[in-house]
Every structure is written in C-alpha cells, then in structure tokens.
Write a structure and sequence with these properties.
306 residues; Rossmann fold; five-stranded parallel β-sheet; 16 helices; 56% helix; disordered N terminus
Length: 306
C-alpha cells in the first residue's frame, strides 16, 4: 500500500532509498545536471514548484513517464488532476485565486470549483493552507536579507518559498539587453527602468509575485518571502493579502554600513533607494554580530510565525 508522506517532513535520502532505480548512475548524473542531490527532490521541485509535467521531468532525467508516475505513488506525492488546473489556471490568474479565497466558508468545495473553473483538489489545497504567511523583506545589498531567510528557516523549522519581484526583470535584461549580471550603478538603474516599464504596461511584477505566492500555497509552504523595492508595489501586495486573509508583514533590515554603501553609489530613486520611503511593520537591526542578528530576528518574528 502506498504511504502518503507529509511533504513538509519528508527526507529525500530516505525516499530515494525506498526505490530501486534502473540505470542508477546515469539517472543520478541527470539529476545532478538539474541542480539536485536526490531523484525525489528533483521530481518534487520540478513537479510542484515549477509546474512541470511528468513527461517533461521524464525527458530531463532520460526515463519513462510511467517510471516517474510509479515513483511518485511510492513516495506518496499527490498528483495533479488531469486538465492542468494547477499549472494552467490557478497559478497564473490571481483573480481566480482571489475568487476561491473569497468563497471560503460560504460555499462548498464542489460549488467553488465549478464556479472558478478548476478542480475540487485545487480549491481544497488553497483552503487548507490558510496559515501561510507573507514577508516583504527589504534592505540594501549586504544588509543581511539572505541571512535573515536562513535564520528564520533554521530557528523556526519552517518551509520557505522565496521569490524576488526583480527576478523576471533580470532575465529580460540578460536576454534582450545584454546585461552581464553585475549590479553596478548602471546595471541597477537598467533593472529599475525595465521594472517601471513592466509595472506601467501590464502590471507584470505584481502578477508574477502573486502567481508565485499561489504556487507556494499549493506547495504547502509555511512562509512566502519576497523583496519589493517600490512603495506602491508593496501596497499592492499588502492589499492583495488583506483581501485574501493572508498575514503579510513588511520587514526592513537596518544595517548602517550597507545603507551608507548604497547611498554612496548614487542609485536612482526608482531603484534600490526607493524602499526607504515605505513605513514598515517591523525594523530589525543588523549592526553587530550574526548571533545578535539572530536574537533580534527571534525577538521580532517569533510571535508572528508561531
């Protein structure tokens, strides 16, 4: 009998050990090329986080789709229903997500699924993951944002889904404008200008963030962390979360050394420095040791997360 495994507590090494893989060396080599250590980890991340089909995953790993299906059953990974609801509908249309959440407690799962054009499974997953929290994290380069994420993950033993509102813009800058990935003054201002255009024509950054937020809910993550520089864009996400009954905190890390370095670069007010103009919910100092920073994070965040 297939054992259903809680996706928040599984151990990839143990899951892999439960399967007798065919052509193991070639398979593990393919997994490494995808950037993962374990087959189960690769399948989980690609299927749930990135919305890839089993056929697509099988092609990357040079195995059959039936093998992927068999392994997922053994691991207890719940498959999406046919029709691509998770990938094609719910994760790409924030209006559908909002409609699903607005009907919670007022209508049945089946009725909501029919009204929203998705499967009951999708509705159930969104309604069950009611306690996911959102953190909008800001601070200049070198202030400790990455350290913050690691400390929260380790101290509170939570699953974190991190997505930056500038990630999509970076890809455009590299592909279409030849940006070399260096965040000097010119590079940062290029990213800021492209993002402003994307905001004005299509509100794309907001749609990208809410899309990944929805994906995090389906992946049953505990916390969704995003960094958004522009005050007006922060307000959009805060309003979105309020409408959908999602706790959202805007957090700014205070690092005097990093702040001075950012100001000395003369960055555009539409770029890195614009984050200073928003009144945050929490301000966390990071001017001393990493241990002191961890203490401050625990002091400020503990009551919210637990």
């Amino acid at each position: 009998m297939t054992q259903k495994i809680n996706r928040q507590k599984h151990n990839y090494q143990d899951l892999d050990a439960a399967i007798r893989f065919t052509f193991k060396d070639d398979l593990l080599t393919a997994v490494k090329k995808q950037g993962y250590d374990y087959v189960s980890q690769c399948v989980f991340e690609q299927y749930y986080r990135h919305g890839q089909s089993m056929s697509k995953i099988a092609g990357c790993l040079q195995v059959t789709a039936s093998s992927i299906s068999h392994w997922m059953r053994r691991w207890g990974f719940i498959r999406r229903e046919k029709g691509g609801n998770v990938k094609n509908l719910s994760l790409k249309d924030e209006k559908v997500i909002q409609k699903i959440m607005e009907r919670k407690g007022l209508f049945t799962i089946a009725g909501t699924a029919k009204a929203c054009g998705c499967s009951p499974t999708v509705v159930s997953r969104f309604w069950k993951k009611k306690n996911m929290k959102v953190i909008i994290l800001n601070g200049p380069a070198g202030s400790g944002k990455g350290t913050f994420v690691g400390i929260v993950k380790d101290q509170f033993n939570v699953l974190i889904y991190k997505y930056s509102s500038i990630d999509w813009v970076k890809n455009i800058a590299m592909r279409e404008f030849g940006w070399n990935g260096i965040k000097d003054t010119a590079g940062r201002n290029l990213l800021a200008a492209l993002k402003q255009a994307a905001i004005k024509y299509g509100d794309i950054p907001f749609k990208k963030v809410t899309s990944h937020m929805s994906r995090a809910m389906l992946c049953q993550e505990d916390i969704f962390i995003t960094d958004i520089r522009e005050p007006e864009e922060i307000k959009k996400i805060k309003n979105y979360c309020q409408k959908n009954n999602i706790l959202c905190l805007a957090v700014r890390i205070i690092n005097d050394k990093a702040e001075k370095a950012a100001l000395s670069k003369g960055l555009s007010k539409t770029g890195d420095n614009s984050y200073c103009d928003y009144p945050y919910d929490l301000y966390i100092p990071n001017n001393r040791t990493p241990e002191e920073f961890a203490v401050q994070i625990n002091k400020k965040i503990k009551g919210v997360i637990e």
